[in-house]
User: What shape does this take?
Amino acid sequence: DTGVSQNPRHKITKRGQNVTFRCDPISEHNRLYWYRQTLGQGPEFLTYFQNEAQLEKSRLLSDRFSAERPKGSFSTLEIQRTEQGDSAMYLCASSLVTSSYEQYFGPGTRLTVT
Amino acid sequence: EDQVTQSPEALRLQEGESSSLNCSYTVSGLRGLFWYRQDPGKGPEFLFTLYSAGEEKEKERLKATLTKKESFLHITAPKPEDSATYLCAVLYYSGGGADGLTFGKGTHLIIQP
Assistant: This one.
C-alpha cells in the first residue's frame, strides 16, 4: 500500500525564483488537497481538487500560487516570484469521496526561501 | 478568534503517566473532528475521526471522545514512542462548501523514560 508521495522533500531557492512541487495521491483517491504549515502552527488549507476540477481555493492562495491536476492523478503546486514569507512545509493530502472525510497526508516539501 | 483551540500547548509526562489532551471548537455544523499525530519533519498521520457527540474511538493506548464543544485524546500508560505533536482538526459546513480541514496548533507531547 503506497501512501501519498511528494517531491522534492526539500527545496532551497532564492527570493524571486519560481518553484514547483509535485504530489502523487493514494491511487484510488479522487480528492487531493494542498496545505501549508509553518513552525509551531497547524496546517492551513490552500486548495483542493476533485478529480481534475479545482473546487475550492483559500484566501491564503495568492495570485502567485497556482495548482493543477491535469489528468486527475498527480498534482503540482507552483509558486511564482517566491518571497521569504513563503518559507514553510507544503503538505499534500488525499481522500475518497465518501462519508468518512478522512484525509491522508504525504511527507511534505520543506521550502526555504533565502 | 481561533475556531479550534488545543490545550495544553506542551505536555511532559513520565512513562506510564496517563493524561488527556483537549481540543475545543467553536464552529457549527460539524461534519467531523479528526485527530492526527505528527513527528518532527513529517506529515500528519491519521489517528481518528469522530462524527457526533458521545462517540468514542480507541487505538492502542489512545482513546478519543467527542462532546458538542470539545474532544479529548486520552493517553493511557504512555511510552516514549508516543512522543509527538498531536493535532486536532474539524470539518464543518460553511457557505463556501469548503472541504479543507481547519487545524488547531497542536499539543507537543513528550514522554520521558
